[in-house]
Amino acid sequence: MRLRNIPRAEGVIQMHRTVIKRPEDQRGCWHQVFGDRHPIYIEIGMGKGQFILNMAKAHPDVNFIGIERYSSVLLRALEKFDTEEYEALTNIRFVCMDARNVEEVFAPEEVDKIFLNFSDPWPKARHAKRRLTSTEFLERYEKILAQGGRVEFKTDNTELFNFSLEQVKEAGWYLEKYTYDLHHQEEMNAGNIMTEYEEKFSLKGNPINKLIARRKD
């Protein structure tokens, strides 16, 4: 999908109070950014922000960091934050960066949970390493997750989901739970907050897959 460039996006991002402009400078200091010792959850590839904003609203005792590579997409999340429903939230920050650089932004064991929602499937085999659930990325996550830290992944793409299940096993992680039909799995669907894509695909009747994996000790 080709993203439309929005010229004003960079200016808004640079001025917005919730955006961390030099995130690498906060490595090891994210608790100071928030001013407390609450757990830190990050969403990689957060899109327009519906999921992470509603998570921050529902869980004021957790700090959230939304990571998005594309400025034009991050702009939409910031516009959503600036609405009456979310503008008072103090437990959320945003970063515009490539997920490949997470180790430069977060210190070892600084993150408690990672959310991956409807990530790009990169369908061509030669691009498998770019998938956010590949062993290459799991290795990166392992370096920043705390002991017992988890990755939660949702997608409607069954092929990508099966690939992800295999990668979790290959990486030596612990597959705690998984389902091929989240919305009809009562235990895993409890408290589920939907993304924009999740709502769209569910309305079409597409089942949603979800897995929860814990980093190896």
From TrEMBL:
Q: Does the keyword Repeat apply?
A: no
What's its job?
Catalyzes the formation of N(7)-methylguanine at position 46 (m7G46) in tRNA.
Q: Which HAMAP family match?
A: tRNA_methyltr_TrmB
User: What molecular function does GO assign, one term?
Assistant: tRNA (guanine(46)-N7)-methyltransferase activity
Which reaction does this chain catalyze?
guanosine(46) in tRNA + S-adenosyl-L-methionine = N(7)-methylguanosine(46) in tRNA + S-adenosyl-L-homocysteine
Check the record and name the CDD domains matching this protein.
Answer: AdoMet_MTases
Where do the annotations place S-adenosyl-L-methionine binding? Answer: E43, E68, D98, D120
Looking at the UniProt record for this protein, which Gene Ontology cellular component terms does it annotate, in alphabetical order? tRNA methyltransferase complex
The protein, known as: tRNA (guanine-N(7)-)-methyltransferase
N-terminal signal peptide: none
Per UniProt, substrate binds at K124, D156, T195, E196, Y197, E198
Q: According to its UniProt record, which protein family does this protein belong to?
A: Belongs to the class I-like SAM-binding methyltransferase superfamily. TrmB family.
Task: Could you list this entry's UniProt keywords, alphabetically sorted.
Answer: Methyltransferase, S-adenosyl-L-methionine, Transferase, tRNA processing
EC number per UniProt: 2.1.1.33
**Top EC class per UniProt?**
transferase
Species of origin: [Ruminococcus] lactaris
Q: In which pathway does this enzyme or protein participate?
A: tRNA modification; N(7)-methylguanine-tRNA biosynthesis
Organism's domain of life? Bacteria
